[in-house]
Write a structure and sequence with these properties.
The chain has 327 residues and is mainly α. Helix content is 53%, strand content 5%. It is globular and about 80 Å long.
């Protein structure tokens, strides 16, 4: 026996209601879950599957990998959503829910992932210098990306900030992170100045008084995540960045962690600032600078010994010059 395809999707409303109101999952995760389930629903009906069984799910995996060319992580996330939905069907005693195959479906191997990249301090300065602060939108964008870099906030966390999230009197900001975990961060003087400048011009935005959001669009709506990402891409293009990797809003978060690490800030402090539940998550964000790596190499016993020999004149090193051209 198996769950009929016509019955499988009947409990989607109760699934999302339970996850949002009882489990209190984040808005962004709920949005992703909806997209995943809708995609699976379209696939099942387009292929005219009568039941949801192992072959149907494996065909869905193949479709994601070969036709949509999704990466392993994206495919695994979609299967994880279906696995959670299957758990909900068992919870509500849906007929034959215990026959669903999602628990047995193998994860797609992702191989070794490249560590996310970070910008150097010089590149960070060049990026912010490229933002036109002579306009209201430029002042807003400077504040958006300033708060991402200077506090390490995720783009979704910046999106959800409200005006009352900022406490200028005590120089604090209250952030709602993944899993609705709330943390408080200190605003240093530079960020206070940036946010104060933005708050001053925020009243120039249309219907600004009707939105509780800290960052709003030209139309007075909460500034969308997509808009933040698109605007950053435009700034990167205008500044003629030549970095061999794609710079995104998340790059600013990685740069925040890496630059703190260069200043010898304890990893547990960085972990707390970034809202991670474990240091292992924070380790992926840390990128020692070339200067820090060079200083570490200079501390190697062999390097120290060689430098001492050179300083005492015991060891003379010369570098071969360019070969003379043959006539």
């Amino acid at each position: 026996m198996a769950v009929a395809a016509s019955d499988f999707f009947d409990h989607m409303d109760t699934f999302f209601d339970y996850r949002e109101n009882i489990y209190e999952i984040s808005e962004q995760t709920t949005k992703s879950n909806r997209v995943d389930l809708k995609l699976f629903q379209q696939f099942v009906f387009s292929k005219q599957f009568q039941v949801i069984d192992g072959p149907a799910v494996m065909d869905f995996q193949a479709y994601l990998k070969k036709e949509r060319e999704n990466k392993g992580g994206s495919i695994n996330r979609k299967i994880f959503t279906l696995r959670k939905y299957a758990q909900h069907l068992r919870l509500v005693d849906a007929p034959e829910a215990d026959t669903l195959p999602f628990q047995d479906i193998l994860k797609i191997r992702q191989g070794y992932r490249n560590r996310p990249r970070a910008l150097t301090k010089g590149q960070i300065k060049r990026f912010f210098a490229s933002i036109d602060r002579d306009t209201v939108l430029g002042i807003r964008d400077y504040a958006v990306y300033g708060i991402m870099y200077l506090t390490g906030l995720r783009v979704g966390e910046v999106h959800s900030l409200d005006l009352d999230s900022i406490d200028f009197d005590h120089q604090r900001i209250t952030v709602s992170g993944k899993g609705n975990k709330v943390r408080e961060l200190t605003l240093h003087d530079e960020l206070v100045k940036i946010l104060s400048e933005y708050i001053t011009v925020r009243s120039s935005f249309y219907q600004h008084e009707q939105s509780p959001a800290l960052f709003i669009s030209k139309k007075g709506n909460r500034l969308a995540i997509r808009t933040m990402e698109d605007n950053l891409r435009k700034i990167i293009q205008q500044s003629d960045f030549t970095e061999p990797f794609t710079v995104t809003c998340h790059t600013l978060r990685h740069s925040f962690a890496s630059h703190l690490n260069d200043k010898e800030v304890d990893i547990l402090v960085i972990q707390s600032l970034m809202g991670h539940s474990a240091p292992r998550s924070t380790e992926n964000y840390i990128h020692p600078s070339i200067e820090k790596i060079r200083k570490a190499m200079d501390k190697l016993p062999g390097v120290i010994f060689m430098n001492e020999l050179i300083e005492r004149g015991v060891l003379n090193l010369s570098f071969q010059g360019a070969r003379p051209k043959r006539e």
